[in-house]
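A quick aside before the break. I want you to see a complete sequence-to-structure record at least once, exactly as it would be stored in a machine-readable document. Don't worry about memorizing anything.
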Amino acid sequence: MEYVIDGSDKVIGRVASSVAKLLLDENSVSVINSEKMVITGHVKDLTDKYKRLIELKDKANPEHSPYWSRRPDMFVKRVVRGMLPYKKPKGKAAFKRLRVYIGAPEELKKLKVYNVKSKMPNEIFESTMTIKQLTEKLGYDR
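That is the input. The structure line, written in tokens, reads:
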């Protein structure tokens, strides 16, 4: 079954966990408006944490280092990958069924949007920022 999830004003972890469950149930999932998703925490702490992750390099062979993209859609895709058993065949197959988009493509606007239940981030958390703001602080310019 094909699911379309709108990420606007949704907490990234809550959306990613429900997307991972849908993927493991052998569904195809498309996430639209990934740049409008919200990550919770203080701005300085978040930027420092992800800058450290981006700069991690293996001294022996830098090609074997973990990779975190600065693009919002790839960033969200990497967060979902962290919630899947990616090194197992079932996890790899599930990850291939995931599509993440910046904005909303015309062909997906026609489909019914599946709603992930959660409260508004401002009601729960003191400090939040969008994925677009975070990736711009990490060096994404577009």
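Two observations worth writing down. The two ends are 33 Å apart (CA to CA). The chain has one domain: 2-138. We'll return to this after the break.
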